[in-house]
């Protein structure tokens, strides 16, 4: 029985070693560790300040949403890792055992619950009764979704995803998105100007988020093939130029400079996010890079909220830091 329990833990210990090694590689330099520690302290302090200035009901809704999103994200990540181990991993035979999967999920979610509990205790301890059940509910939804997903549709889904991603990086996609914005302005002509501006803002965020999608394997291939950072950025952002050139003047003419400014701000924010993701993808694996970009994005949002004049300086500092490290990765396979 003891030997069986020990073997069930092999898979989780393997991923723990991988995560530790990835963290050590990402924070190899003393400056990198200091920057990471400083960013963590700033983010946690900002979270504490934000929750302290809000009523319990507002904080509870935020904790509910954050806990549920964390549970879904953790559940999807765990399902993806188990799928990898069961198909391409070194311990595939062990990963296919139901007992191993259960042990892996319990251990991984235990770490997720511990991290969320620590963050909640720092932000506002009374919200533990909201955030932890929300996490468990989100994790259950992710687990059920993974169980009910039809396995026969995997290849068709992958092929369709590749086709959509390729098309989204073409100039025609930007023209189509701008035409959709124009059509919505015509259809919503009877609404108030504030409602139309809100609709255009939401559409701009959704459109630019789609047009600035980044594919990790493509970035890695272009990096080892000798492509520079800004050439990769230009490749992924080709569809944004026609969208900006069409959508911003259209919204200016129909709704005025405020709506045009919102569209332009959405375009700038998503281009900045895309650039950070590309630079991070040149340095790290996809999951760690996404986590790093999420931290940087949170810092920029907090800077915009607390000290707006410092936002351009903070954005340039982050881009310079990532670009300086990413430049050394060109032509390298590691």
TrEMBL record:
Keywords: Membrane, Transmembrane, Transmembrane helix. The chain crosses the membrane at residues 34-52, 58-79, 106-123, 135-160, 172-191, 261-279, 291-322. This is Uncharacterized protein. It comes from Allosphingosinicella deserti. The lineage of its organism: Bacteria, Pseudomonadati, Pseudomonadota, Alphaproteobacteria, Sphingomonadales.
């Amino acid at each position: 029985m003891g030997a069986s329990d020990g073997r069930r833990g092999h898979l989780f210990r393997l991923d723990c070693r991988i995560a530790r090694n990835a963290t050590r590689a990402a924070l190899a330099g003393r400056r990198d560790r200091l920057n990471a520690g400083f960013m963590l302290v700033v983010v946690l302090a900002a979270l504490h300040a934000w929750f302290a200035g809000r009523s319990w009901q507002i904080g509870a809704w935020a904790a509910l949403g954050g806990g549920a999103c964390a549970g879904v994200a953790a559940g999807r990540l765990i399902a993806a890792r188990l799928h990898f181990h069961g198909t391409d991993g070194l311990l595939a035979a062990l990963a296919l055992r139901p007992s191993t999967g259960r042990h892996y999920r319990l251990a991984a979610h235990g770490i997720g619950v511990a991290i969320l509990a620590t963050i909640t205790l720092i932000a506002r301890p009374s919200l533990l009764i909201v955030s932890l059940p929300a996490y468990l509910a989100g994790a259950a939804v992710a687990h059920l979704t993974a169980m009910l997903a039809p396995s026969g549709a995997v290849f068709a889904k992958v092929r369709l995803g590749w086709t959509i991603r390729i098309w989204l990086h073409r100039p025609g996609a930007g023209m189509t998105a701008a035409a959709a914005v124009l059509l919505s302005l015509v259809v919503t002509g009877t609404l108030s100007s504030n409602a139309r501006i809100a609709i255009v803002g939401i559409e701009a965020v959704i459109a630019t988020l789609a047009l600035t999608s980044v594919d990790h394997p493509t970035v890695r291939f272009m990096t080892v093939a000798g492509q520079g950072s800004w050439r990769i950025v230009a490749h992924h952002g080709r569809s944004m130029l026609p969208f900006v050139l069409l959508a911003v003047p259209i919204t200016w003419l129909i709704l005025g400079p405020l709506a045009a400014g919102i569209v332009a701000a959405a375009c700038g924010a998503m281009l900045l996010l895309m650039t950070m993701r590309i630079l991070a993808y040149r340095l790290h694996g996809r999951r760690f890079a996404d986590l790093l970009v999420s931290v940087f994005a949170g810092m920029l949002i907090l800077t915009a909220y607390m000290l707006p004049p410092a936002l351009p300086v903070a954005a340039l500092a982050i881009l310079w830091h990532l670009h300086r490290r990413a430049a050394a990765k060109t032509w390298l396979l590691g």
